[in-house]
Amino acid sequence: MDVKQINVLVLAYLGDSVYENYVRSFLISKGICNVHDLQTASLTYVSAKGQAYFLSKLLERGVFSDEEMDVILRSRNYRSGRHPKNCDILTYKHATALEALIGYLRYLHRETRIQELMQWILEGNL
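^ thats the sequence. predicted structure below, dont judge the formating
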């Protein structure tokens, strides 16, 4: 299936799991061994507010290719009509855009690129 034909929310669904796996692995590698502590620490990264923040920082750095920007804009502008009660619609759309990009890259087996983006996010080099 052509990745451009896949609904951006489906890409975000895939990207969410990939993103969260990177975050969990990173936190465990930092020596956090308590599940409650892992959950608490992960909120910085996996919340809509956190994801929107990281996307904005990556955008400021200009790290995205034109192709990646197309995915980000397509998913950010998608009209879903829903968003979680704990954040505003703009934050949700930006978080979804980051997840959709990660899902897009995973679907295309661009693991090196995912690793680059996640390293910027997780290592705090933004």
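The chain has a mean pLDDT of 92.
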